[in-house]
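Researcher: Next sequence.
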Amino acid sequence: MSEPESSDNLDHTQLVGLPRRVESHARLPLETIASNFLDQVRSGQPVDMESFIKNHPDMEDELREFLPLILAMEGWKTEKENQVVRHPLPDEFDISHLGNCKIIREVGRGGMGVVFEAEQAPINRRVAVKLLPWKFKQETEWSQQFHREARTAAQLQHPNIVSVFSFGEEDGRLYYVMPLIEGVGLDKLISYWKDIDSTVDVEDLITTVHGTEFGHENRGTNPQPGHQRKLLKRDNWAQIVKLAVQIVNAIRYAHRQGTLHRDIKPGNLLIDRSGTVWVADFGLALGRERFLDDQFFPLAGTLRYMAPEQFDGITNELTDIYSFGATLYELCTLQPAFDSTSKSEMIRQITTSNPATPRSINPNIPTRLEAVIRKCLDRNPSKRYLTANELYGELLKLVSELSNEPKGLWRQIRGWF
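Model: Next structure:
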């Protein structure tokens, strides 16, 4: 097969020599099937090539030869786009405005971008602006996906979800505007529990991480009337499960709206001064599973919380449940389910082995809580909780048991949600 003169604007299905017995102006059955297959791949839908081929038994031989070539070319095209948009993050950003938001200061960064505290005009409200770390020189599938998923995320309205106010593009970089949550990621809480103190004052933790001026305009100079400091204690299992209930309540709501998270991990779960947990970055993982380069996505923020089937291109409600299980595992044991400095070894561990049982690390973990974690982390998706709603119900029962509170109270709370 000869090299095409230019592949930039050429459909991949045109790059393969097709049977010459058909006139060039005719739409070939093989080309039609291949185009449908490619459309599914590009839409992000899970595609089982073997099942796809078996749906066309009359062309099985041709498709077995043809479809892998299409996938290879699509992968080549995607990698070329990745090389264009990937840029290492600078140590400092010389940015004064993003859209109608005046940048005040940087408050955090990670593999998925940099977060700034900002003031949004003309209403002068304090907001958080997240700038994605890639620069797009031209329209690509990533910018299209970002806008599509940002619109979807903006429709999510839930008391445990960080909503999206607006989104846009500045100098080729994509950003979105969110409420400024005066909180810290659960990864910071885990670090403090593990290395510093078994009892953490959330107010002090936020101040330590972000400084005294963080969110000052929103909060005012004095604590609000009736404000009580929130203390979180390591090995307070009822308290930990109550945090988990809030997280899963947000996940099940989003799933009902047809939205996956795809990047559930402690760093994307914020706890505020009142003890409320906020799930951030819903639906905005931006094809995270395609970026497995350590330089741009540190292991702590990517592979560690991914379900085994995600390495086969499958992402669905059950992969969110797995990622939640890996997060809950870390909250309870204070160590990740899988831990390796090698990307390939991390993938091998996730896809072929089971993590150490939680009670082998901390015997104080309740047996029922360990059972919930292990079910979420089952390598066989069909053996996990099949819906977030099922998992939510199990956690509510567990809270009732661990809190020694009347079951009727938690039935009432469940009804409120």
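Model: The CA atoms of residues 91 and 128 lie 19 Å apart. The chain has 14 helices and eleven strands.
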